[in-house]
Inverse folding.
């Protein structure tokens, strides 16, 4: 394995609140709170600027609690559409630096910049350039964690870059233990409240405590999850997160967004689906490709329940046109959605082919279809209808036959 990869995790500070402030500069420097239903006291805080956080305001609080902490807070209603658009605009900025981008959530994206040193300088310089560019063009503060794999980049960002004022921090296999092991165990990626309690019960308080336990013991106790935590404590990335670059593009182009709150309403879901589909189609077109299959991925809000699905449908014809793909994405979604709140939505186009190839194949198909139907008539006349199936599975024309059936048909 190549150990000298350079991965960045870029995270936006107080994302929703920052987008609101960027759009309305009179809010800059004020304690701004993006809140579900500010008039009602039980509206929930989705984001708060650092000025608001200074009063003790935290995501997840109610408007009522907020008002007590900071009577002068400025409340803004959320504009999801705007946040998704901004998230996609950020991807476009990242694309100026690398084509290997993997969105992690609405305000966090992984970038692989291995081999980009000649273009942008060392990883810290590159991170600085990205931060600067986002600040100047979007008015949003970005923090970047640097690592040799996505896990290290995520830990570098969450545990250090977000807190050090500079907004940049770099972890590597070499310094990982020195920096992360003294931290409380809840700082380890993958440790939630429940796992924190479990680990407390066996005497684990810091990442070091966990790292020094035998891997087998964690595996015996919590299975794969225990093993993953052990790997996380050692800065080893278990995941198969492969930033979609190079080879990946040939297989498919995908995009997913993890929403910070539950989506239940059709209009909201439709908006997000359309946005994601547009992004996927735009990127597919950028590579001069068209896709044959659309995939929709959905994950429920409750991570403890096995909700969600991943389903695909063959398109009547290969395409990368948003309004041709979107109706199918929508169809897949509503056929499989269990009506439970949605947290993550993803769309991808696979079975990619060159646009040029498509143009050629459309021409060829016409000729082949005519030849095929002639042959079919001949055989039907001679041997009866069932013989067609044997023909279709034995001859090279079989593939074509199969495909001819799929065009215009519904292949789930
Ligand atoms: Mg953030």
């Amino acid at each position: 394995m190549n150990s000298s990869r350079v991965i960045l995790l870029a995270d936006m500070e107080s994302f929703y609140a920052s987008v609101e402030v960027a759009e309305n500069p009179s809010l800059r420097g004020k304690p701004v709170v993006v809140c579900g239903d500010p008039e009602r006291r039980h509206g929930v805080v989705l984001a708060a600027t650092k000025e608001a956080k200074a009063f003790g305001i935290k995501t997840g609080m109610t408007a009522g609690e907020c008002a007590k902490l900071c009577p002068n807070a400025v409340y803004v209603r959320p504009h999801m559409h705007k946040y998704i658009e901004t998230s996609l605009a950020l991807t476009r900025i990242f694309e100026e630096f690398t084509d290997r981008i993997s969105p992690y959530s609405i305000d966090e994206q992984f970038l692989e910049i291995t081999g980009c040193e000649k273009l942008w300088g060392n990883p810290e310089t590159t991170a600085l350039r990205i931060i600067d560019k986002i600040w100047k063009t979007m008015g949003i503060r970005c923090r970047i964690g640097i690592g040799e794999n996505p896990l290290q980049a995520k830990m570098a960002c969450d545990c250090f870059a977000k807190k050090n004022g500079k907004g940049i921090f770099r972890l590597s296999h070499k310094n990982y233990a020195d920096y992360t092991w003294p931290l409380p165990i809840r700082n380890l990626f993958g440790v939630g409240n429940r796992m924190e309690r479990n680990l407390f019960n066996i005497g684990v308080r810091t990442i070091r405590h966990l790292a020094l336990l035998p891997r087998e013991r964690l595996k015996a106790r919590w299975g794969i999850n225990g093993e993953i935590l052990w790997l996380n404590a050692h800065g080893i990335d278990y995941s198969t997160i492969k930033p979609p670059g190079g080879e990946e593009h040939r297989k498919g182009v995908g995009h997913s967004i993890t929403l910070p709150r539950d989506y239940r309403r059709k209009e909201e879901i439709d908006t997000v689906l359309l946005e994601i589909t547009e992004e996927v189609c735009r990127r597919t077109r950028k590579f001069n490709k068209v896709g044959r299959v659309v995939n929709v991925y959905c994950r429920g809000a409750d991570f403890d329940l096995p909700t969600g699905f991943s389903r695909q449908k063959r398109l009547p014809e290969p395409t990368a046109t948003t309004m041709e793909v979107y109706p199918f994405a929508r169809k897949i979604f509503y056929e499989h959605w269990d009506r439970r709140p949605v947290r993550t939505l993803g769309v991808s186009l696979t079975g990619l082919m060159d646009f040029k190839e498509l143009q050629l194949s459309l021409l060829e198909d016409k000729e082949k279809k005519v030849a095929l139907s002639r042959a079919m008539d001949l055989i039907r006349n001679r041997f009866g209808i069932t013989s067609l199936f044997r023909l279709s599975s034995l001859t090279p024309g079989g593939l074509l036959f199969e495909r001819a059936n799929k065009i215009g048909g519904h292949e789930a």
User: Anything to note?
Assistant: The chain is about 45% helix and 20% strand. Residues 7-13+82-233 form a domain with the Alpha-Beta Plaits fold (CATH 3.30.70.270).
